[in-house]
Amino acid sequence: MGFVKEFKEFAFKGNVLDLAVGVIIGAAFGKIVSSLVEDVITPLILNPALKAAGAENIAKLNWNGVAYGNFLSAVISFLCIAMVLFWIIKGANKINKKEDAAPAGPTEDQKLLTEIRDLLKSKNI
Questions:
Q1: Which of 29, 42, 57, 68 sits CB 3.0–4.6 Å from 46 for a disulfide?
Q2: Taking a C-beta distance cutoff of 8 angstroms, is the pair 21, 30 a contact?
């Protein structure tokens, strides 16, 4: 019975459950970002650029029998996903950014020192 109880304590600890939820939400978010890149960004931006360059099907590109098109396609996809994630994180940071508090006025000591300075200036000391 000791093993089952120990496993239960491990499996249902808060940290393990939080991690599991994070992984599941991360996978779902990954699908959203992939869909955004594949279904929106690629048709609107990447496909016209590839057609203009004369490389409509980038995955089939090869040079002397070396098929580098799949690799190039994966790199472009990674860069698109990274850019979309950057925009999402930048937007989230802007939303979550707390407004800077107005600087507090001078303290009593600072006010006193300012008065002393002004008096000394007026007496040319």
A1: 42
A2: no
Distance of alpha carbon 55 from the chain centroid: 31
Beta bridge partners of 63: 66
Q: How many whole angstroms from its chain centre is CA 58?
A: 28
Q: Which of 74, 78, 44 is nearest to 58 (CA)?
A: 74
Tokens encoding 9: 């304590």
Collapse the DSSP code of 13 into the 3-class scheme (helix H, G, I; strand E, B; otherwise coil) and give the result. coil
pLDDT digits (tens, 9 = 90+) for 96-125: 776 555 567 888 888 888 999 998 888 876
| Sign of the torsion angle spanned by Cα atoms 24, 30, 31, 33 | positive
Q: How far is it, in rounded angstroms, from Cα 56 to Cα 53?
A: 8
Asked if residues 81 and 43 have their Cβ atoms less than 8 Å apart, the reply is: no
* Residue-wise pLDDT tens digits, 21-68: 888 888 888 888 778 877 887 778 777 877 787 767 776 777 787 777
Are the C-beta atoms of residues 76 and 58 closer than 8 Å to each other?
yes
Beta bridge partners of 66: 63
